[in-house]
């Protein structure tokens, strides 16, 4: 798909840390259609790109605008810093819309769960469900009052279907098991938020005996932050025997690309599964949310965009 060129039409401070950025097509034509859950990958000036979900904002429909919601990350690898430095009138390039977090055409009730800036794709899903008069509930979780973006956009069309939860206000985080118990058997849940929230919902979903295919999730972090104490390790490419060293502040994908290899990936957050690679020797340090506990324990497969190694060497089926 051809890249798109935009001018920043408007910037709206949603919260002290989150800004909505309205991108306008530089051409006087409509932008490609998109569906709830879609993202675009914004090109960074120093190379690379970052994914941002498209927000169905009622003030900016009509075809020539995309709206992003971007939180300033403390551990930004460039994406949120770049977006937060943009001014109205600046030029931006991005890919066309990509959707790996599709709202399904099912007719059953829907439970939407959003944590923090994970609201961006969930808002678009809620908007579509409301327009189609489908049965849904949205639970939106954040740390404190004043930190939840797009509340004023959500409230008019969600009404009583929206519940907000603050960590610092009783009763705090919602009881995911209780929310799942209230969802009829033919219901589907969509969750977007940080890894801890997704893992908690996945555990509650499995404990309730719900079918895995009815839980759809997307991890929402701009870029995985390096964990303190990460060390270098080697990756051996099984097909050639070449050994590539992964530095403490590099991902396996970054190290492979720096060594001149083409690698297939997308989210770089550990939630899409596209970079999944078979492990022939060594023990991965799993940091994704795609693999099941059983798959992680098997140590035969890993997501090379975020996961590292517990052993000095990993032999990968590349
Ligand atoms: S690129 Fe998405 S899980 Fe690795």
Bound molecules: FE2/S2 (inorganic) cluster
Low-confidence stretches: none
Helix/strand-derived class?
Answer: alpha/beta
Multimerization status: single chain
Measured between the Cα atoms of the first and last residue, the distance is 27 Å
CATH fold label of the largest domain = Rossmann fold
Arrangement of strands in the largest sheet: 9-8-7-10-11
What is the assigned CATH homologous superfamily of the largest domain? Answer: Nucleotide-binding domain of ferredoxin-NADP reductase (FNR) module
Tally of structural domains? 3
Q: How would you characterize the largest beta sheet?
A: 5 strands, parallel
Shape verdict: globular
Mean pLDDT rating:
90
Q: In percent, how much strand structure appears in the residues? A: 25-35%
Helicity level, as a percent range?
10-25%
Query: How many strands appear in the DSSP assignment?
Result: 18
The CATH class of the largest domain: Alpha Beta
Total helical elements: 7
Q: How does CATH name the architecture of the largest domain?
A: 3-Layer(aba) Sandwich
Molecular structure report:
The protein has 318 residues and is of the alpha/beta class. The chain folds into three domains: 4-94, Translation factors (Elongation Factor Tu (Ef-tu), domain 3), CATH 2.40.30; 110-219, Rossmann fold (3-Layer(aba) Sandwich); 233-316, Beta-grasp domain (Ubiquitin-like (UB roll), Roll), CATH 3.10.20. 19% of the residues lie in helices and 30% in strands. It has seven helices and 18 strands. The chain has helices at residues 79-85, 119-131, 151-158, 176-182, 195-207, 252-258, 293-298, and strands spanning 4-13, 18-25, 39-43, 49-53, 65-71, 91-94, 110-115, 136-142, 162-166, 188-193, 215-219, 233-237, 243-246, 276-281, 284-285, 301-303, 308-309, 313-316. The strands form five sheets. Strands 9-8-7-10-11 form a five-stranded parallel β-sheet, sandwiched between helices. Helix 2 (119-131) links the parallel strand 7 and strand 8 (136-142). The longest helix is centred in the middle third of the chain and has 13 residues, at 119-131. The two termini are 27 Å apart. The model has no long low-confidence stretch (mean pLDDT 90).
């Amino acid at each position: 798909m051809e890249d798109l060129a935009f001018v920043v039409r408007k910037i709206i401070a949603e919260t002290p840390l989150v800004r909505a950025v309205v991108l306008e097509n530089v051409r006087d034509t409509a932008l490609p259609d998109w569906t709830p859950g879609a993202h675009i990958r914004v090109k960074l000036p120093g190379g690379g790109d970052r994914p941002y979900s498209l927000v169905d904002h009622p003030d900016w429909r009509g075809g020539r605008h995309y709206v992003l919601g971007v939180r300033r990350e403390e551990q930004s690898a460039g994406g949120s810093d770049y977006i937060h430095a943009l001014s109205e009138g600046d030029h931006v390039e991005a890919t066309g819309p990509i959707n790996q977090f599709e709202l399904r055409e099912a007719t059953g009730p829907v439970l939407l769960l959003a944590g923090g800036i994970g609201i961006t794709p969930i808002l678009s899903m809620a908007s579509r469900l409301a327009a189609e008069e489908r049965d849904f509930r949205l639970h939106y979780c954040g740390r404190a009052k004043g930190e939840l973006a797009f509340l004023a956009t959500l409230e008019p069309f969600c009404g009583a279907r929206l519940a907000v939860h603050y960590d610092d206000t009783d009763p705090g985080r919602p009881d995911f098991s209780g929310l799942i118990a209230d969802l009829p058997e033919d219901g589907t849940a969509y969750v977007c938020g940080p890894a801890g929230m997704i893992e908690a919902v996945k555990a509650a979903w499995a404990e309730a005996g719900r079918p895995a295919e009815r839980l759809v999730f997307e991890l929402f972090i701009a870029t995985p932050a390096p964990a303190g104490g990460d060390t270098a390790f080697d990756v051996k490419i099984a097909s050639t025997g070449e050994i590539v060293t992964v530095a403490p502040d590099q991902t396996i994908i970054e190290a492979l690309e720096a060594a001149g290899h083409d690698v297939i990936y997308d989210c770089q957050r550990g939630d899409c599964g596209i970079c999944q690679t078979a492990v022939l020797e060594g023990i991965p340090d799993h940091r994704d949310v795609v693999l099941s506990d059983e798959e992680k324990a098997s140590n035969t497969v890993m997501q090379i965009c975020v996961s590292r190694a517990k052993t000095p060497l990993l032999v990968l089926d590349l």
